[in-house]
Amino acid sequence: MKISFDDKRNGGQSSFISVEAGVFRGGQLPENIVRALRQKHPNSSSLRPEDPIIVMAALRVLLGEVHHATGDTRQPTLYCMAALVSVQSDGRIFPADSTHPWLNRELLAPSDAETLIGKVSVMDEWLQLNPFSGGSLAATLEWADRFWNAVVGEKGLPKGYKFWGEVALQPTEASVGMKASQQQRRFYDALMDDDSLITPLLARYVNGAPEPKIVDASLGLSAASMPRGTVTAAYGMSLSQREAMAAFCALREGELLAVNGPPGTGKTTLLQGIVATELVSRALAGGEPAVIVGTSTNNQAVTNIIDAMTKAMAAEDDRLWAKRWVPDANALGLYFPSMFKEKEALQAGYLIASPGRNLGTEEWKGFPERERNGDDARASLDFWVSRYSESFPAEMTCSAQDNSDDPQAQALNIVEHGIEGIRKRMSRIADVGKIIVEQAAGLYQLFEQSVLIFTEN
Questions:
Q1: How far is residue 243's CA from residue 258's CA, in Å, rounded to a whole number?
Q2: Choosing a second label site near 257 at 20 to 30 A (CA), which of 10, 55, 190, 413?
Q3: Where on the tree of life does the source sit, at the highest rank (predicted)?
Q4: Is the peptide bond prior to 110 cis by the omega test (within 30 degrees of 0)?
Q5: pTM of the predicted model over 0.70
Q6: 118, 108 contact by CB (below 8 A)
Q7: What is the pLDDT of residue 176?
Q8: CA atoms of 451 and 457, how far apart (whole Å)
């Protein structure tokens, strides 16, 4: 989980209050600290005198060592470990709910950060063997010390850094990330209580498979007869990509496909083909489009996928039906950034979806807002009809024969007939492809038999 503090200790107003580590560990904050924290709380105006407040406490903060020549440091401050605590109106400190202290995920390998303090694998293993059981502030901090020493202690501090002898306190509301982790724990608890909630995919992910499947010639030919899509016609797939695609097409419910390869071997291109194939398959079947989720331990891996898809779709192609028929939505991917990355994502031009600060209590914002907007929906409908008319003018004439006086009803009728017409075209192309593959399979069998006869002779 990320740890974010508005650090302006070198000038300006900071969002946090600092207190000596010994004072914090004593479990009692001075009156002036409590007053300052309550004034900085997001809901300060509605706080009652007796209300406790939630505070994020940075338990481990690393400062860059000061250069004696310049008197300053170029090293960024690292907020490495934090915990949520409840500060009572009289200054007493208690752990907040059952949320355990956590390490800044962005500072653990693998990560794009320049400075790292440990590894995710070490953290996960320790947490599995040492589950947090809650308790008093003293017990929580003792658990946090052992946690830190297990993940960071043996490695030592990053070069050029030293411990800050204070604890940063920042009043906060429970963030989306915090709530998400709480929901994850509830999810796992529910699974442990009811085995019927375990899906085939989850069971396979946890338990693995007895034997891995091997892509052979028969599987490749079988997959070749299935309709496939492509994001760009600039180049085809390599042999290894075709084998991976064949394995993907043969997946059954709950099965997993692992694709591994060094940079530049075409994993992203393969992913583009898989996404396009899913879209084509669902369109031919007449069902709802597949919901394809791309996730990673860092934002860049996700945006790289979106960027690659957008770049491929932006390639020069005069065919109107090779583009999206949705206005101002040239990307296939909808980005779900954290609240800390929303502004950056919008500035970069991504289509985003955001739940807002109160997860589950506010309507999604970003691109979903457009979908709820009646004017935008009508504009999108007209845009689709115009693209269909330009691409398939003959079919457009047939679809336009509607006696309704309502323009929107006429447009919806055109869309309905248009989609069915496009599906029929795609089906005819797919049928021709199956025939070609069947003929190729027959020739392959004859070739194998002739080689066998030749070898025996």
A1: 12
A2: 190
A3: Bacteria
A4: yes
A5: no
A6: yes
A7: 46
A8: 10
Distances (CA, A) of 74 to 65, 67, 108, 161: 9, 9, 21, 11
CB proximity list for 211: less than 8 A, separation 6 or greater: none
pLDDT at position 141 is: 94
Q: What is the largest CA-CA distance in the chain?
A: 99
346 residue type, one letter: L
Q: Which residue has tokens 């009728």? A: 413
Residue 152 contacts residue 80 (beta carbons within 8 Å): yes
Could you tell me what percentage of the chain is helix, strand and coil, using 3-state DSSP and rounding each to the nearest 5? 50, 10, 40
**Residue closest to 10 by CA, chosen among 66, 60, 56, 69:** 66
Identify residue 307 by its one-letter amino acid code.
D
SS3 293: coil
Q: Cβ–Cβ contacts within 10 Å for residue 164, how many?
A: 18
- Under a CB-based contact definition with an 8 Å cutoff, are residues 282 and 290 in contact? yes
Residue 119 structure tokens = 């590894």
Mean pLDDT by 10 residues, the chain (457 residues): 55 72 94 91 81 90 69 72 91 84 90 86 91 89 94 78 91 61 73 86 82 71 70 74 84 86 83 86 80 80 83 69 74 78 83 67 72 79 83 66 68 79 79 76 71 54
Paired strand residues for 167: 19
The position carrying tokens 């989609």 is 419
Tokens of 135: 């308790």
Is the Cβ–Cβ distance between 167 and 24 less than 8 Å?
A: yes
Q: How far apart are CA 211 and CA 209, in angstroms?
A: 6
One-letter identity of residue 299: N
Q: Quick one: DSSP state of residue 335? A: B
Alpha helices (H) along 225-340: 239-249, 267-285, 299-313
Q: For the chain, which residues make up each domain, given as ranges?
A: 17-174, 373-457
Instruction: Indicate the residue type of 456.
Output: E
